[in-house]
Amino acid sequence: MRTSPIRWLSAEVTEIVAETPRVKTIRLAIPGWRRQLPGQHVDVRLTAEDGYQAQRSYSIASPPEEDGVALTVERLEDGEVSTFLTGELRVGDQIELRGPLGGYFTWTVEQGGPVALVGGGSGIVPLMAMVRHRAAQASRVPMHLLCSWRTADDVIYRDELARLAARGDGLVVTHTLTRGAPGGWRGPTRRIDREMLREVLPGPGARPSAYICGPTPLVESAATLLVSLGHAPERIWTERFGPTGGVS
Amino acid sequence: MMEEDSQRLDGNGAAGVLQEIFAVEMTTASCTCDGCGRVSLVGALHLYGGAMGTVLRCPMCGTLVLCITSGPKGHFIELRGILRV
Hints:
By secondary structure, chain A is α/β, with parallel strands linked by helices. Chain A is 20% helix and 31% strand. Chain A folds into two domains: 9-101, Elongation Factor Tu (Ef-tu), domain 3; 109-240, 3-Layer(aba) Sandwich (Rossmann fold), CATH 3.40.50. The radius of gyration of chain B is 12 Å and the shape is globular.
């Protein structure tokens, strides 16, 4: 087995984009970075002046084809790291991170499809890296993304996803809203349930690879429902980020 | 005592600390549970984190597979429930 000792790297913030009032994408230039696989994450470590350290994991939103790394971070009310990243951080600042981490929750075009992606809120982030990787490779592997949001204002990457889906090259995107929808909304307006998974995603006969990321209750519910529909448990990969945080 | 189910994450989330200790990417390694014999990828184990450190349990039977206690002097690792990796 080839060893790959891990070390903390210094990353410079090159761009910050507000996705929604609570979510920001942070672009980083990282000297010494080893290319990630779509779906991987990084550990971010903040050190206060008094030496106090806080560490959290964040999924990478950008595909390996892109230079640098983009993290999309949701501000959690009690999140000491996320409030800093989304509130205090400025272009030109340096942060410490290590990665890419976690080969388990990854997908590349070489693995083929079909692919079923299920996300809850900012759980879409590692799935977006897979969507972007597929697009960057001009792949026509069938890929279905189903993502659950509270309201239409919470949807991140909405325009980019609409643009990619409009290519008609096998990417299908469905957003469902759980707390009310604006007039003219054509997607579903309820939590992800068995019926929705059956209607929106490729059936078990197509043997899709399923990736689910989001809050623990959503991930466990979706994984259980997929198995009840006949999907093979060993073709379902999950990334839970807990009731409020963790890998996101 | 079993941790709250709603608190559990995936072993994949412990990739950083595992790679720090083992110096290889561990989440795609498979391990055999000493409790029930189930073979799981480390990334698919159930992860419970907290002030005490990192706990990985078998997703099938809940057996404690691996426990990492982190402190200023480093990590203390207990590989209690792994038959083989």
